[in-house]
Design brief:
This protein is of the alpha/beta class. The protein is about 35% helix and about 15% strand. The protein is elongated. The chain binds iron/sulfur cluster.
Length: about 280
């Protein structure tokens, strides 16, 4: 894959860049429709590299076999990234870099000769991380990287990601439904409902003092180790509406227990409720 989008998120503003104009044209309205601000759109690959200082890379982590070509060995899979970005000019350097990457993620270099089906889910995730690191990216998009793993392997992968972040100063755009994982790994959190940003801010602030009713309901569903805390789970009424035909006004109003008449008419803007903490709710204070 030669053209790849880079999406950086900061303070409710998206910096969207890609050398593919068609991709930008498709993505920009989606981001704008989500209520976010799109600040810069660049189209040159050179400009992408100037932002990140590294070749652009979109990296999706996937524990499923479809995330990797079952006919390619792990060495070939990782080496493909090096080839596309011309990062290994000789066969010896290519092999050395593949071995180095496998070692970094805790796998044995001899694993390079194996095929994806010979690995467990956790090991495949490590291969995905090695493939991501091949281009020395400054941003790794982790799309549900631990959702298919059991708890102990989840912890290993999260620890590996955090170690790599400390050692390599890499940023993660971490997409997940597991709120405990999000709380643990994130510095900033963005909550989306029906494709729109409803809240974003520092992880601690969003978790401890959520401003949007949907965020409050989400975090109330996290199981508590100590039932004596008396935390009450909020059950949202009704079903999630279709994103193809979202409700008018605030898209959350059919399920919101504090909705007012204006919520059915007027879509709430994403507002800064407290420093660097944003919410899209008329009543957020
Ligand atoms: S804008 Fe109204 S309906 Fe939407 S979350 Fe806030 S109170 Fe609920």
């Amino acid at each position: 894959m030669r053209f790849i989008p880079v999406l950086l998120y900061t303070n409710a503003t998206f910096l969207l860049a890609s050398p593919d104009p068609a991709l930008l044209a498709a993505l920009e309205p989606l981001l704008l429709a989500s209520g976010a601000r799109v600040e810069i759109v660049l189209t040159a690959e050179a400009a992408l590299t100037s932002i990140t200082g590294h070749p652009p890379a979109l990296v999706l982590l996937d524990t499923n076999l479809p995330g990797m070509d079952p006919r390619m060995t792990i060495g070939q899979t990782i080496g493909e990234s090096l080839d596309i970005h011309r990062l290994a000019p000789t066969v010896a350097l290519r092999q050395a870099r593949i071995s180095e990457l496998l070692t970094i993620v805790g796998l044995d270099p001899v694993h390079a000769r194996r095929y994806p089906h010979e690995f467990s889910g956790g090991q495949r995730q490590r291969v995905g991380i090695a493939r991501a690191l091949a281009v020395s990216p400054k941003l790794i998009v982790c799309d549900e990287p631990v959702s298919a793993l059991d708890a102990s392997v989840q912890a290993q992968i999260i620890n590996l990601l955090q170690d790599l972040q400390r050692e390599r100063a890499v940023a993660y755009l971490f997409v997940a439904h597991d709120l405990a994982v999000i709380e643990h790994i994130s510095r900033r959190v963005m909550v989306m409902y029906l494709g729109k940003v409803v809240e974003c801010g520092d992880a601690k602030a969003v978790v401890q003092t959520p401003k949007h009713p949907y965020t409050t309901a989400l975090f109330s569903a996290v199981p508590q180790i100590n039932p004596a805390t008396g935390a009450r789970r909020i059950i949202l009424p009704g079903e999630m509406p279709s994103p193809l035909d979202p409700p008018k006004g605030c898209p959350f109003h059919p399920r919101c227990s504090i909705a007012e008449p204006r919520c059915r008419i007027e879509p709430p803007a994403l507002r800064e409720i407290s420093p660097a903490h944003f919410a899209a709710c008329h009543l957020a204070r």
